[in-house]
Amino acid sequence: GSKTFMVISGKKKKSFLGIKSLTVDEITHLLDFAFEFKKNKFKGKNKTPSLKGKRIVNLFLEPSTRTRIAFEVATKSLGADIISIAEKSSSLTKGESLRDTACNIQALGADAIILRHSSPGSATYLSNLIDVPIINAGDGAHEHPSQALLDLFTLREKLSDLNGKKVTILGDILFSRVARSNIWGLLKLGAKVTLAGPSTLVPKLMEEFGVTVTYDLREAISGADAIMLLRIQHERQTQSHFPSLVEYSKMFGLKESGCKPDKHTIILHPGPINRGVEIDSKL
Ligand code: CP
Q1: CA 182 – CA 176 distance, rounded (Å)
Q2: 108-126: per-residue pLDDT in tens?
Q3: Which residue's C-alpha comes closest to atom 4 of ligand 1?
Q4: SS3 state at 198
């Protein structure tokens, strides 16, 4: 429908860049639409050809397993053609700029570009340069909006209403785009958000967003309806933010023994998981 984020069928460009700029109504509409889709239309491998005849380009310039494949499956299920481009096999390795790469993709008739990039703001940058709608599939430590929609969808399925629910985000908040997108989304849907982890990775300043910051694992998980774990993002850290992974795991890893979540607490992890670091495999 016209209210939906039909980035492809709308006459006007409608890029999907982040959760921060969405209204509560837009988020709720997307989640309701996804729920109907899951219930009625996405059973088995049946295709819903609403993107038939469209050409989508998966431009993944940073490693990904889940997001890249999920977008491929979704695009194919909606009947579109998908072309996947990875950095190592593209002319970016020969010095071509992101702008020129995107302009070429536009000239070859793309109807949308799904972009994963290590630079915060890269999706917004491209959306201002070309007419093709951009879907942000993760831009550096800035936003990962499709991951947040998935997490919000899962939490709404399990808890029905997020209003007043305590959701703790635990781990490497500073470098996490998943944390940022989820913070915006959870707050907009009325959840009480607690951020926890080492003080070097969870700046107290983040309380300005309207969240609680704690460095005490017990306080973080006590009474939590959901705990969202985050991986330590070595690839974005420029210095050591804690003495060692063993020490991180001892202080902030979720385990079956000792300081552990309540039985009813939902545990989410966007992946990839560092098993035995942020969470015990058994748990
Ligand atoms: N959750 C997530 O973004 O995983 P990938 O990096 O494998 O896509």
Answers
A1: 10
A2: 999 999 999 999 999 999 9
A3: 66
A4: coil
